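[job 0412] stage=fold_complex status=start
inputs:
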Amino acid sequence: MIQLKSVNKQFGAISALKNIDLHIGPGEIVGFLGHNGAGKTTLMRIITTYLPVTSGRVMIDGKDVLKSSLAIRAKLGYLPERPPLYLNMTVKGFLSFAAHLKNVPFREVGKAVDRVCEECWLTKVKGRIIGTLSKGYQQRVGIAQAIINDPALLILDEPTSGLDPLQVVQVRELIKRCEHQRTVIVSTHILSEIENLVSRVVIVKQGEIAADAPLVELLYNSQSKNLEEAFLKLHPVYEKN
Amino acid sequence: MRKINAIAFKELTALFGSPLAYVVLFLSTAVFNIFFFMIIDQNREAHLKDIFTVMEFLLVFFVPIFTMKSFAEENASGTMEFLLTAPVRKIEIVLGKFAGIKIFLFCVIAPTFVYYFIFSHFADFDKVTALWGYLGIWLEVNFFAAIGLFISSLCRSQVVAAMSTYVILFILYFSMSFKMYVEGKLNVLVSYIAVMSHSENFFTGIFLLSDVVYFLSGIIFFLLLTRLMLNRQ
Ligand SMILES: Nc1ncnc2c1ncn2[C@@H]1O[C@H](COP(=O)(O)OP(=O)(O)O)[C@@H](O)[C@H]1O
Ligand SMILES: [Mg+2]
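[job 0412] stage=fold_complex status=done
writing structure:
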């Protein structure tokens, strides 16, 4: 479904991504793992057509992201690292707005809003102004916005960052529910949060892919009990950072 | 079209969600009424020229207040990433925001239609000139709004966006006063750039295609420039 061929991304002198080759098949649930500044967000922004590559090629469903950007965006659900929230809109107002922009048929907008509110446990706060909601609710509004068009590809950039433990559990539950019949990419720098969520882990390190394997294989090869340990083996300097 | 409407509607709700909108609507209507009353009270000729002139003056001050947020706020809050990754064309984003502001500015101008009807019922009134004047003021506020949108698309801070828009609108609006200090080609240039040299013609019933071209090309130029600015990351 997603194919990156020798993708490079420069920001001025900074080389954020170096020669990335990546293939993600339909229905795969992939976790991008790496600490801050590794290049996860940049990688996601390139897949979502938000950023152009410096060199290399990105294809989604056989289409080039630069040439068919609009068609690709129509199938996409994306939660940016900073949840995109209009703080003075109501939850319902914002979700309807997202539905209109994302090609939900006109007559089904109301139904789609009700559906995602139910899926994301937002029904009770549907009429509330987004700015007055707690961080956990806001994050769920961000996820609701991403799935309103029932996307074939769902990309969530650090969906659990900045939440308290209970909210993290809720969001993780929610992502699990979203996984049906979709390709999902989730990024995080907190390992334990994707361990039970993803089937494949791509470890990003200083703009390069340091490891890319099914979760079990990664654990087996590095002789580690959990992802945390496997990660530390690949990142000897991790503790110092 | 549907996406342009959705964005325009969102902009309008945001504009009318702030008390400033009502203050401006109230204030401008009050000022227009005073000028209208003066025309009647002094038994002057039934003409909307004075109304247009004061409207033009007020709008130079009001337009930046309502355009400053448009892109600057989205740039600062990160919602731009949402808009740009939704299946929406960049030109639709620009036109949607432009439409929202236009509808709001129409509401500022609309109360003066009452004067038009009063004059056409009770006075010897040149309707064609008045309608031409309305076309002029409409093109002019659209021009101001396009400039405001463009500046806002460059900024993250609303204050910076408003201030920079004021600078440009003031240059366009007051440059007529500097005309006498320059000569030759520069003089021609200044009077071409000055909005007043074009809007005056509309208000006084002088029909010149070049004035329409001035505003229309300005609007299209700044909208396209705004669209181009959305490309840069
Ligand atoms: N818009 C940008 N301009 C300049 N440098 C950037 C920009 N975005 C990201 N970077 C740089 O690219 C690198 C990767 O960043 P990012 O993709 O945000 O990492 P992550 O999401 O893994 O924390 C960092 O060094 C960051 O400073
Ligand atoms: Mg990031």
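[job 0412] summary: The two ends of chain A are 35 Å apart (CA to CA).
[job 0412] exit 0
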